[in-house]
């Protein structure tokens, strides 16, 4: 069965699905930590410029190898990379080693998505060309390090669940909110600070940020809906929110997204929904998130 980052389970027949939100979502909260790198790995990255540069070079290679695929495949490959390096330790900063690990992570992610590809085409002309057997051996090393947990639980696994808490009745509103949250998650992955937070916290925070950018009049109710969720640690969500704000992302990206996905009449309707006391201030004060 083709792997889907939003629905990473292997057998849907074992679970009851109500509306658009599967009832197995709570189990994701219980096991999501199994799909994260260790705290030691994160501290090493934060304390060492060399470690950070090694990770950055490997991610650049993943971006190069996966450029013909979707951003979601690249996201999955980087997830494999971080979990592998977390388990095995950071290698020596030798380009060929990092490229071998990177191409193997991309190959595994492509196989999980049942994509047809040629390893020679994947590698391009970057200087190092690995034989198929060499990549296959590295794939098995990665599989062992990850304990064959390749159906990664990521922030995308929680997006639909959290959106369902908002009780939105307008499908277009849900679509644009989800699209903006997904964009935030994809853009944020390469920052090492993101590794500190559970996937569910990242998903919740991305939706909170997206809702404030797109629909500030409904932001308080969205914020309250997520903060009342028993699976969400409010303090961690606040820390994650502060980090995203510190990254300095601007809401003009959200405006561009609205322009791309809606007609002029629909955009006018959305603008009317945004005219309230939040309209002049695009930064949410910490107390607004904390006291919810």
TrEMBL record:
<dbReference type="InterPro" id="IPR036915">
    <property type="entry name" value="Cyclin-like_sf"/>
</dbReference>
<feature type="domain" description="Cyclin C-terminal">
    <location>
        <begin position="153"/>
        <end position="285"/>
    </location>
</feature>
<comment type="similarity">
    <text>Belongs to the cyclin family. Cyclin D subfamily.</text>
</comment>
<feature type="domain" description="Cyclin-like">
    <location>
        <begin position="157"/>
        <end position="246"/>
    </location>
</feature>
<dbReference type="InterPro" id="IPR013763">
    <property type="entry name" value="Cyclin-like_dom"/>
</dbReference>
<protein>
    <recommendedName>
        <fullName>Cyclin-D6-1</fullName>
    </recommendedName>
</protein>
<keyword id="KW-0132">Cell division</keyword>
<dbReference type="InterPro" id="IPR004367">
    <property type="entry name" value="Cyclin_C-dom"/>
</dbReference>
<dbReference type="InterPro" id="IPR039361">
    <property type="entry name" value="Cyclin"/>
</dbReference>
<dbReference type="Pfam" id="PF00134">
    <property type="entry name" value="Cyclin_N"/>
</dbReference>
<feature type="domain" description="Cyclin-like">
    <location>
        <begin position="60"/>
        <end position="144"/>
    </location>
</feature>
<dbReference type="GO" id="GO:0051301">
    <property type="term" value="P:cell division"/>
</dbReference>
<dbReference type="InterPro" id="IPR006671">
    <property type="entry name" value="Cyclin_N"/>
</dbReference>
<keyword id="KW-0131">Cell cycle</keyword>
<dbReference type="Pfam" id="PF02984">
    <property type="entry name" value="Cyclin_C"/>
</dbReference>
<keyword id="KW-0195">Cyclin</keyword>
